[in-house]
Amino acid sequence: MAIKLIANYSKRLGLPGYSSHQFSVSVETELVTTDDVAGESQRLYQMLQTSVDEQIQHTGFVPPTEYGMDPPAGAPASNGNQPSANVRWKCSEKQRELIEKLVAEHNLDKNQVESLAVERFGKGVRHLNKVEASGLIDELIDTHGGQRRPPTNGRRSAYAGANGNGGVG
C-alpha cells in the first residue's frame, strides 16, 4: 500500500503602499514505505522553501502609494506633499476658506504652510482631514495671530494641550 505525502509551502511579503505578494507551491508524492517519513518530509520542505524563496524575489508590479486613489477627472495624481490646484480639499469648505484667508491676510508663503502641514501631519494642506486641518488652523493662528475661533460646545482642538494652550507647558 502506497502512502501519500502532501507538502505545501507558502510565503507572503509586505510591499510598499499597503501591497503584498504571495507565492505558494504544493507537491504530492507517494512513499513506498514508512521507514523515512520524517526525512522525506524534510527533503520536500527544503525543496519547496528554496523554490518559493527563489521565485518570490521577483515582485513584479508594485503599486505607487497613491494607487487606487481617484483624483478628480483630468487631475494629475499627487503624492500628497505637493500643492495642486486640481486636488480636491479633504477638510471642510469653511476650513479651506479659513486657511486661505489666514495665508492671504498674513502674507504667508504657501510653500512654508505646505511644509508645516507635511512636517506635522505627513501630508500636504489639501490632503488634511478635518481634525488635521483644525490643528493646522490653530497653529497658524497661534503663530501668526488672528481671530480665535469660539469654542463649540465646550470642545477644544484635538491638538490643544491639557491646559488648552496648544500643547505648550
Write up this protein.
With 169 residues, the protein is an alpha+beta fold. Helix content is 36%, strand content 15%. It contains four helices and two strands. The protein has a two-stranded antiparallel ribbon with strand order 1-2. A hairpin with a 3-residue loop joins strand 1 and strand 2. Helix 2 (93-105) runs parallel beside helix 4. The longest helix is centred in the first third of the chain and has 20 residues, at 37-56. The radius of gyration is 28 Å and the shape is rod-shaped.
Layout of strands and helices, then pairs:
Elements: E1 3-15, E2 19-31, H1 37-56, H2 93-105, H3 110-121, H4 130-144
Antiparallel strand pairs: 1-2
Biased composition (Low complexity): 153-162
Region (Disordered): 142-169
Based on the model shown, name its key terms.
alpha+beta, two-stranded antiparallel sheet, 2 domains, disordered C terminus, 169 residues, 4 helices
Low-confidence stretches: 72-84, 157-169
* Annotation field: number of helices: 4
Biggest sheet character: 2 strands, antiparallel
The domain count comes to 2
> What is the CA-atom radius of gyration, in angstroms?
28 Å
Structural class: alpha+beta
Order of helices and strands: EEHHHH
As a percent range, the share of strand residues is: 15-25%
- Strand arrangement within the widest β-sheet reads 1-2
- Tell the overall outline: rod-shaped
Secondary structure tally: strands: 2
Share of helical residues? 25-40%
What is the CA–CA distance across the termini?
Answer: 80 Å
What is the mean predicted local confidence, pLDDT? 78
Biased composition (Low complexity): 153-162
Region (Disordered): 142-169
